[in-house]
Amino acid sequence: MGKLRRGQEFKLDLMDVELSTTSVQQTGRTHTSFHSNKQVTIICCYCSIPFVPSITGTNVCPKCLTSKVDITIGITKQAILNYCRQCKRYLRPPWIDCALESRELLALCLRKIRGLNRVKLLDANFLYTEPHSKRIKMRLKVSKDVMANTNIEQTFDVEFIVHSQQCEDCKKEFTPHTWGACVQVRQKTLHKKTFFFLEQIILKHNAHEKAINIKEEPDGLDFFFKTRSHANRLIDFLQGFIPVKMKMSKQLVSHDTHTNVYAYKYVYFLELPKICKDDLVVITDPRLSKDLGGASNILLCYKLSNVVHLLDPIRMQRVEMNAETYFLQEEKLTFVPLRNNATEFMVQKTEKYDASKANTSFSFYGLKFQAADVEVSRTSDWQPFFVKTHLGDIIKSGDTVLGFDLSTLSLPEELDERFVTRLAQDVFLVRKVYQGRRTKKRVWKLRRMNIEAVSYTHL
Fold first, then answer.
1. Which residues are registered as beta bridge partners of 79?
2. Beta bridge partners of 63
3. CA–CA dist 398, 375 (Å, integer)
4. Smallest Cα–Cα separation from 271: which of 394, 401, 183?
């Protein structure tokens, strides 16, 4: 470089710093000014790559710092999940239902990982594993500030081993004498029409959810529950749909004399009414007819809910009996089921009564009844009958109906002498038969409860 002259400008680059020198004539001296336009970089002590030291605050570059520092130390990489193969639930606790790769199972797995409170969780997802491998794998992404507020992100995998363990409910289901309350539902009749209807109602509302076992008995079912409160839930449910008579008994299992704590087993006996829908009801006590508002001695049961609904088709008089009244007077009633005593009739002519007059028509929860004079013929020998019925709104000439023919029906002798000879008509029509319904196949399948069948070879 040649000799510099006074007043000449030049630039000097040294270690990425620009130097600008300006010669100014002031009192015979020269002043030089330095201006920095770029950040200072240093060399990493591990990889010798230049980097800005203000990023990490150390003499280590971010890449080497990430490889040298492990923020996942102290976080669980392997854990155990307890799984019940019978009810397909996982232990949290308590035992909960979780599908594979669901949000519930993800939350359960994250609870099993220790040390996540030391870092910040950014992402978590499942990795594919074979269903029979008894392994559940997850990939987590976490971050943490280290060494002068340097944020590091790392990804790692966690493996969960699924261990089979039987839950308490399943243990009690397979172990005898572990139930705390039993509900015995019985109906003492030849045909279980009401009982089958009640089974579908229980399935619809899932009222047997808490039952640990269900056993079949000759006259009904036994529901076994873990606690007494679960049994009371089923009892309250049944009482809201059908009249029942309940008896309760308890047996002492054990007690502690020091704490005065007693353990009992409770048994509830629920008796369903013998009457079913479309049954013929014969009142054998005249005083009961008077107490029911002067009702006729022969009635039809057209509906069975939490009360018994009876109807006199000749007078179009309705009678309702609650559970207490029914079971108190059940011995004074005789029931004739339609299933084995039905007679088929053909409608020849109908003549409806004026609906504006009293006691000629009424509606009840979608059921519409209207009084009518009907001429029918018995299909077996075509003998004509003139009867009064409550089905005038739904039958017409040419329809087929089912009913009771008291002239051919085998009844007890005392009933024949007292009531049948006094009746104004011998035929009581019950319901209409819709042609073609039996030939069609159902598009749905009838649900049934999971009942443990018991063999009674000694009976």
1. 160
2. none
3. 11
4. 183
